[in-house]
């Protein structure tokens, strides 16, 4: 089974713990292609996915992950100097954040494109949290985007991998910290270095976080949730295929 993963840093897995590698370990006979790119919004993810499908339309399934930076980048715009510089750079390189309405239009248009140009099955994962404090404003926005994604999955015959429900169940019953990529040097450099050294869970412990290293990117526990949800969704595509043999 050949599966394409396209998305942002949540998919890429270098910032935090790589959940795709966890799937690889349990499913050694699957061919998994990681095409996650740090910092991308749906605009750029959509462009790349269309190109990848035209070049190679024979994937059994594509995991199409987005949302994170469409919420995060507008937040950066109102923070300190270096966050604003990062926002301006991302916009100049084509990573333009989409409002909920524009996000829905582009998401559906991209799904339709993939379904028109290939027989691949599309898996849409929700995002777990943007700040482990579920009452944070970023999570109110996340609820809107996740709802758009859930509706599209239902109406366009995609498979939903609902990570958000699992995160909410975990975080709603424990004390959480109000932390969301608070320090630029950590977000841009230091967290990446620590994660490359295998110290992602140390960052979580230091910041009193449970499923993430910074309110967004996954620690070992958060990555296991992603792994379990997405592995189950991929197996479901296999069952769907058997129905049409």
Task: Explain how this protein is built.
There is one protein chain. The chain has 245 residues and is of the alpha/beta class. The chain has helices at 9-12, 19-26, 42-55, 68-76, 81-92, 100-117, 137-155, 163-171, 184-196, 200-207, 220-243, and strands at residues 2-7, 31-36, 61-64, 121-125, 159-161. It has one domain (2-243): Rossmann fold (3-Layer(aba) Sandwich). The chain is built from eleven helices and five strands; from the N terminus they run E-H-H-E-H-E-H-H-H-E-H-E-H-H-H-H. A five-stranded parallel β-sheet has the order 2-1-3-4-5, sandwiched between helices. Helix 7 (137-155) links the parallel strand 4 (121-125) and strand 5. The mean pLDDT is 97.
Summarize the structure.
With 245 residues, this protein is an alpha/beta fold. It has helices at 9-12, 19-26, 42-55, 68-76, 81-92, 100-117, 137-155, 163-171, 184-196, 200-207, 220-243, and strands at 2-7, 31-36, 61-64, 121-125, 159-161.
